[in-house]
């Protein structure tokens, strides 16, 4: 347990006052001390209370192994909202949880002021914990009423498609229009009039006077969760509710994903500055806290002196520190407000910083050799950002819904620049086919760029 909760409360209150003095602006933060096992569950499920599913158990084992190997330690988890909710581990030292308090205030400031966070929070709501608990309760009721096999089949499909939302659209959107206006009756031009008057020519048929049936979808639809919830032919209301619940949580978490480097770097900059200016902290506590800060923002793990993956804390902290030293806090605040990681990396990671941080693009060969292949600034930026496109998922769009309710999807590989792992695509298509009940076809390419088709005929009891 934390050795002195009274002292932590005192330091936390004084650090919060100092943060306001330095100009940070954040929603109230509700801090809660929890055991490490509970923190592990939050990290795995994404929320303190969430729908049950077997995939979270697999993630828990993966996280546990990493933690036991010393490759992963969770100091805190913070959920943006009004108020924000922050969890810290009760086995952390007083110095570590003092640092966590300052770090969380930096996160809270970023979440309140970054426009991507504010836009998505306005759509998804600022009470994510309460909303998630209510959804979990409804799913528990469905489990009791319909049985684990049926509910799990819906969760399999919904969670497999969790990243497939359209972040350029809105959370709450209407269904497609059922009809479109007929084309306007445009009088023919002089050339067309002369052509129609030639011997043997007849007037073109008159356009239909009534509205035309609209195509579904009218354009490629990248929000697969929304499409299935609205157009799957035989879903019950509780099944649609599961898809919409998963989709709403994906909208809530998108800014956390798309601003990870900025957000972690901003929180790290401010926790370091707050600790440095907190003259009321004992010297030995400050030294211990700053040592934890150094462990968090270093570029490599353990004793390795070469990093093959980017530590977002290290990269973000380094960029913010230079921006504030060079241009001031006001300029940094404008960047914090307007950018996400895409703009942040492309606009502020320059060649000087690449050299200072020793960044490069590498490849691992089949024979086990790893070698540096590129130090070009543009290649480095895109390598850092590559996994962030489209929530890290391949770009899949619904392109056609047939009259018999069979559906066609297409992988837009030119948009995301990669092929699909076919075995994984087949597994996801099986999940989708079981709840769509009709044939589902996906056109894609493999890692060699060769065209492939993955199909599923729907459940055996489908009405085709």
Automatic annotation (TrEMBL):
Residues 7-386 form the SpoVR protein-like N-terminal domain. It comes from the Bacteria. Residues 400-446 form the SpoVR-like C-terminal domain. It holds the Pfam family SpoVR. This is SpoVR family protein. It comes from Janthinobacterium fluminis. The lineage of its organism: Bacteria, Pseudomonadati, Pseudomonadota, Betaproteobacteria, Burkholderiales.
């Amino acid at each position: 347990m934390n050795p002195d909760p009274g002292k932590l409360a005192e330091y936390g209150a004084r650090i919060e006052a100092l943060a306001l003095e330095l100009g940070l602006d954040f929603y109230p933060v509700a801090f809660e001390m929890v055991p490490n096992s509970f923190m592990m569950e939050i990290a795995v499920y994404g929320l303190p209370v969430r729908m049950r599913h077997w995939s979270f158990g697999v993630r828990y084992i993966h996280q546990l192994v990493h933690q036991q190997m010393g490759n992963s330690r969770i100091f805190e988890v913070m959920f943006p909202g009004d108020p924000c909710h922050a969890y810290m581990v009760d086995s952390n030292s007083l110095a570590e949880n003092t640092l966590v308090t300052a770090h969380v205030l930096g996160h809270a400031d970023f979440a309140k002021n970054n426009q991507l966070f504010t836009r998505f929070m306005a759509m998804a709501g600022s009470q994510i914990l309460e909303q998630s608990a209510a959804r979990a309760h409804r799913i528990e009721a469905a489990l009791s009423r319909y049985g684990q096999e049926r509910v799990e089949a819906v969760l399999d499909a919904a969670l497999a498609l969790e990243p497939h939302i359209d972040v350029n659209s809105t959370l709450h959107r209407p269904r497609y229009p059922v009809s479109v206006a007929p084309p306007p009756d445009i009088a023919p031009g002089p050339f067309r009039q002369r052509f129609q008057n030639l011997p043997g020519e007849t007037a073109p048929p008159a356009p239909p006077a009534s509205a035309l049936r609209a195509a579904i979808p009218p354009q490629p639809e990248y929000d697969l969760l929304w499409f299935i919830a609205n157009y799957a032919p035989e879903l019950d209301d509780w099944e649609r509710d599961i898809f919409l619940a998963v989709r709403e949580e994906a909208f809530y978490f998108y800014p956390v994903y798309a601003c990870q480097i900025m957000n972690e770097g901003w929180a790290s900059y401010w926790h370091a500055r707050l600790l440095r200016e907190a003259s009321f902290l004992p010297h030995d506590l400050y030294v211990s806290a700053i040592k934890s800060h150094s462990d968090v923002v270093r570029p490599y793990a353990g004793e390795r002196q070469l990093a093959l993956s980017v530590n977002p804390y290290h990269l973000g902290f380094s960029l913010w520190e230079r921006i504030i030293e060079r241009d001031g806090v006001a300029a940094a605040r404008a960047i914090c407000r307007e950018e996400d990681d895409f703009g942040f990396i492309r606009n502020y990671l320059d060649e000087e910083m690449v050299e200072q941080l020793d960044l490069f693009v590498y490849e691992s060969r089949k024979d086990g050799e790893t070698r540096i292949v590129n130090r070009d600034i543009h290649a480095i930026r895109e390598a850092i950002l590559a996994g962030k496109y489209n929530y890290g998922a391949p770009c899949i769009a619904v392109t056609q819904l047939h009259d018999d309710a069979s559906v066609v999807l297409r992988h837009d590989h030119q948009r995301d620049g990669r092929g699909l792992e076919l075995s994984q695509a087949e597994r996801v298509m099986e999940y989708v086919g079981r709840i769509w009940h009709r044939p589902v076809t996906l056109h894609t390419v493999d890692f060699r760029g060769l065209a492939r088709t993955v199909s599923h005929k729907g459940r055996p009891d489908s009405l085709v």
